[in-house]
Write the C-alpha cells for this entry.
Amino acid sequence: MTQTDLQQSAAQKSKNRWPRLRLDPWSLGAVLIAAVVVAPIVAVFFMALTPTENIWPHLLSTTLPRYLKNTLVMMIGVGFFAACIGTGAAWLVSRYRFPWVGWLEWVLLLPLAIPAYVGAYALVDFLEYAGPVQTFLRSLFGWETARDYWFPEIRSIGAAVIVLTAALFPYVYILARAAFREQSGEAEEVARSLGVGAIGRFLRIGLPLARPAIAAGVAVVMMETVNDFGTVDYFAVQTLTTGIFSVWLESNNAGGAAQLSSVVLVLVVLLVTLEKSSRRRIKFFSLSSRHRPVQKTRLTGFAGWSATALCLFPFLVGFVLPMGVIMSHAVENAERWRDTELVAALWNTITVGGIAALVTVTLGVFLVYGVRLSGRTLPRLLMPLTTIGYAAPGAVLAVGILIPLAVIDHKLADFIESITHERAGLILTGSAFALVLAYCVRFFAIAQGAADGALGRVSPSLPMAARSLGRTRAQTLRQVYFPLIRGSVGSALLLVFVDCVKELPATMLLRPFNYDTLATRVHDQASLENLGDASPGAVLIVLVGLVAVGLLARANR
C-alpha cells in the first residue's frame, strides 16, 4: 500500500469516527436533564461532607439516635401493618365472592386521596378530650374529668403509625391484587385436589408468587413514611425528617441538615437495594401457554359478612372517618370558603402545580425520546438515575436545592447590580422557581415512566416511515408519536399535578415568604388547632386526590 493510500485510509477513518463524536442535541439534552434531576442528591452529600460547622459529633451524641430509632419504628410499623392489610384485602377480593365485593374492590383505593396529615388532623379531632368519642363516653358513664377514666394517648407514635397505615396501605393492595389476579388457576386446582385448605393455599401458593409485588408496595409505603412530615410533626414524633426542619430552621445549620438528609438517603438506598435484590432472587414463570384465571369461591352467611367487614374496616378508617370529620368542619364553617387567603392559596397551588406538571412531563418525554434516538451509552445509563428523586424525601430535596440555588442567586444578583447599578433581589429563591424545580425532581420518575411505557408501545415502523418521508426528529415526535401517546401524557400530567398539590415538606421549606399553597395553609391552620379554617383547603386537596384515584382505578380495571 502506497503512502497516498495510507493517507486516504486514515482520512476515511477520521470521517467515520467524526459522527460518533459529534454533539447530538437530543443526547446532550437528555444528559442535561438527567444532571439537573440528580444534582440535588449530589449536593446533599457534598454539603454533608464539607459543612461550614460540623455538628455531626453533637448529633451522634444527642438527637440522632432518637431520630433514627423513631424513623425505623415508623418505617417497620407502617410497612408491616400496610403489608398485612393490603395483602389480606387483595387476597379476599381476588379469590372470593362475598357481599359488596365488587364495590369494595374499588373503594379500597380511596384512602390514597387522603393525605396522611389530613387523616392525622381528623383522628385527633375525633378522639381528643373534647371530641365526640370521649364526650359520648363521659355522658354515657357519668364521668366528669379525664381523671375518672383511662383513654389512649392520641398524640403518640402508635397513633402516627395507624394514620400512615390507613393512608398508605392501598399501595400494597393495588400491587398485590394485580399479582393475585395474574396467578394461574391450575396451581389452585392442584392444591385443592391434594386437600390443601384456604389458608394453606394462601401461604404455600398465593403469597410466595405475589411476594415481589408485595415487597415493591411495602418499599413504596416505607419511603412515603420517611418522607412524611405533617403527620409526625402533628403527633410530636421526632424523626429524621422533623430533625432536618429543626436543625435547619431553628439551629440555622445547613450543614447539619445536609448530614441528616444524607442519613435519610442512605436509608432509602438500602431499602430500594433490599427490595430489588429480593425480587432478583425470586423468579416464577408460567409453564402453560394458556392462562386460566382462578375461579372465585363464594362465601355466604357469617364467613361472607366477615370478609366484608375485614375489607370495610380499612376503608372506614382510611377514608370515611377523615373525610367525614373534615367535611363536617367545612360545612360548619361555610364562610371560610370565601376567605381571600384560601383563594390565594388555591391559585398558588394550581399555578405552581400546573407549571411543574407541564415542565416535568415535557422534560420526561424529551429525555426518553432523546435516549431512544441517540442510542448512546451515557444517556442510557443516566436515565434510571433520574428516578432517584421519587425515592428522596421532599425535605432532603429542599436541602439539596435551596442552598446551592441561594449561592447562585446571590452571585446573579451581584452580576445584575454590577451592570444595571440596581439591586435585583433574589430571583430564584425569592420566587416559586425553587418550588417548581423541587416538584420536577421529586416527581420526574412518574413522567419518565409514563413516557417510556407510551413510547415503547408505538410500532417502530411508524417513525421510520415518517423519517423516510423527510420528517425531522422533532416533526416525527410532534406528528407521529404525540397523537399516539397523548393519553399517557395526559395521565402523567394529572398524576404529577396531584402529587404537587399534596406535597408538604418541600413546599414548606422552599416556598417564598408569605406564599401559601393549599398544603401549607392546611398544615399551618391545623397546627394552631384551627381545624375550621383548615377544613376547606383539606377538602379541596382530597377532591383533587379523588380525581387521581379515579384515573388509577380506570387504568387497573
Notes: The mean pLDDT is 83. The chain has two domains: 24-54+333-557, 60-287. The chain is about 75% helix and 0% strand. Residues 340-374 form the longest helix (35 residues).
